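Fold this sequence, please.
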Amino acid sequence: MSCREAAGMLQACLDGEADEDTARRFATHVEDCRRCGPETAVYQEIKNSLARQEVPDETSLARLREFGTALLASGPREAARFGGAR
């Protein structure tokens, strides 16, 4: 699985909406990838914080701000690449 594919599956996998094979491939990729592993951990922390109705930690918020800035500057297509290629 490429980083681009993982970025496209991130939300579905974190939400438990991906099929078993996809979830397994995603988990294997993020476990081994120095880019996608930390990225996934940040999004998981944001999701967990929101579920607890707490404010996410500053690192997660900064990463989310970076993503938003890339989205505004480059459009959705470039932001998706940005999110998966860190």
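The helical segments are 3-14, 20-32, 36-51, 58-74, 76-84. Residues 82-86 have pLDDT under 50 and may be disordered.
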